[in-house]
């Protein structure tokens, strides 16, 4: 699986992957903020019930937000995993290119194109099953 005619500028790859890394950090901060804001919105949405004692029950808006987050969690995690796999693959393939091993560079680049496996964390924080 050799990639004939490669013409890579390693400093260019480093520059682009560094910019992607910075963007990934920004996305991670936004996702964390998203989680905080969704929780706040869900608890602030109120309920359609009357007076209650203790913890407020979850209302329909809060339940809908929780369901939305649950159904989109894998997609959100996939974004980061896809970007990380692409960046790591580009860096590794470039290292093999620089070392003169174009066959391994091509294999690494090809493998980086495969979709990453995303596992949602379990409620206890450990890694859960693939979704």
Keywords:
two-stranded antiparallel ribbon; mainly alpha; 131 residues; 3 helices; 65% helix; 2 strands
Account of the 3D structure:
With about 130 residues, the protein is mostly helical. It contains 3 helices and 2 strands; from the N terminus they run H-H-H-E-E. Strands 1-2 form a two-stranded antiparallel ribbon. Helix 1 runs antiparallel to helix 2.
List the helices and strands and how they pair.
Elements: H1 10-44, H2 60-98, H3 102-112, E1 119-121, E2 127-130
Antiparallel strand pairs: 1-2
User: Low-confidence runs (pLDDT<50, min 5 residues)?
Assistant: none
Order of helices and strands: HHHEE
**Count of helix runs:** 3
- Helix fraction bin: 55-70%
Shape: elongated
Largest sheet: 2 strands, antiparallel
Radius of gyration: 22 Å
Quick structural summary:
This protein is mainly alpha-helical and 131 residues long.
């Amino acid at each position: 699986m050799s990639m004939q005619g490669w013409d890579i500028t390693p400093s260019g790859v480093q520059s682009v992957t560094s910019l992607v890394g910075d963007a990934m950090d920004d996305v991670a901060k936004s996702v964390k903020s998203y989680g905080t804001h969704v929780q706040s919105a869900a608890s602030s949405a109120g309920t359609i019930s009357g007076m209650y004692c203790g913890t407020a029950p979850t209302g329909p808006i809060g339940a809908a937000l929780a369901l939305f987050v649950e159904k989109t969690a894998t997609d959100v995690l996939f974004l980061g995993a896809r970007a990380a796999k692409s960046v790591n693959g580009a860096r590794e393939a470039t290292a093999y290119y620089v070392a003169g091993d174009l066959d391994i560079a091509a294999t690494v680049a090809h493998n980086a194109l495969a979709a990453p496996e995303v596992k949602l964390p379990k409620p206890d924080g450990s890694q859960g099953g693939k979704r």
